[in-house]
């Protein structure tokens, strides 16, 4: 089964303004929210007038140019849904300085992980702290390669997931990871699966217009500067539009070098 990858941005935080109320929604991550609070347009008083968290009015001091919404003092549980309502005057809007702290963080723990004989990767997790996609990666061509993803459920209990993988010849390695708040993803240990598959070969046609493989395979072609110029799956790669020069071919679990001469 082939899966096409489309890069996209997942929005975990909702911010909108309605009837002089700025609403911020997300998940509690044990951090507070900071607000830039300007003067009202008429110069009398400050913009924000009242703060509610999950429907409850807070005691946060709003009569200053900047203030903190103290979520850590509200007995919230990590991962709990948070809805912040900031009432304000109708001629100004407060600015949320750090909305990203309501993004979920990857906290999952792997309970079990295995690959069945039909190529289904299955894993069970616990202690999730927000609905973040699980990214499935396969190690080949001397790097971890994206192969697909499954949306995480996001609650603390045990959850079961599965994904149909495509194996290459020889030893296969797979792992899952999540990327949330912060730059460091949380990654599972790799699982190894040895698959009895004939190793494919390749050849350039005499006119240097195609690369042909002995069987269907994933492939990527890079130029001499490391930029990817071709990517796909099949028994051939059209290279007629490539300029002359040195290229690197990744297919199956192999890396080869070739020169396009025509």
Helices and strands in order:
Elements: E1 14-18, E2 21-27, E3 33-36, E4 48-53, E5 56-57, E6 66-69, E7 81-88, E8 95-96, E9 109-115, E10 120-126, E11 133-140, E12 143-151, E13 159-164, E14 170-178, E15 186-187, E16 191-195, E17 202-204, E18 210-223, E19 228-238, E20 245-251, E21 254-260
Antiparallel strand pairs: 1-2, 2-7, 3-6, 3-8, 4-5, 4-7, 9-10, 10-13, 11-12, 11-14, 14-15, 14-16, 17-18, 18-19, 18-20, 20-21
Q: How much beta, percentage-wise?
A: over 45%
Helix content percent band: under 10%
CATH class wording of the largest domain: Mainly Beta
How many DSSP helices?
A: 0
Count of separate structural domains: 3
Overall outline: elongated
Number of strands: 21
The neighbouring-strand order within the major sheet is 1-2-7-4-5
Rg over alpha carbons: 26 Å
What is the architecture of the largest domain at the second tier of CATH? Sandwich
Q: What series of H and E elements makes up the topology? A: EEEEEEEEEEEEEEEEEEEEE
Main beta-sheet annotation:
5 strands, antiparallel
Based on secondary structure, the structural category is mainly beta
Mean pLDDT: 89
Distance between the termini: 35 Å
Structural notes for this entry:
The protein is elongated, with a radius of gyration of 26 Å. Helices cover 0% and strands 51% of the residues. A hairpin with a 2-residue loop joins strand 1 and strand 2. It is an all-beta fold and 262 residues long. It has strands at 14-18, 21-27, 33-36, 48-53, 56-57, 66-69, 81-88, 95-96, 109-115, 120-126, 133-140, 143-151, 159-164, 170-178, 186-187, 191-195, 202-204, 210-223, 228-238, 245-251, 254-260. It has a five-stranded antiparallel beta sheet, with no helix packed on it. Strands 11, 12, 14, 15 and 16 form a five-stranded antiparallel beta sheet that branches. It folds into three domains: 14-102, Immunoglobulin-like (Sandwich); 109-195, Immunoglobulins (Immunoglobulin-like, Sandwich), CATH 2.60.40; 202-260, Immunoglobulins (Immunoglobulin-like, Sandwich). The protein has no helices and 21 strands.
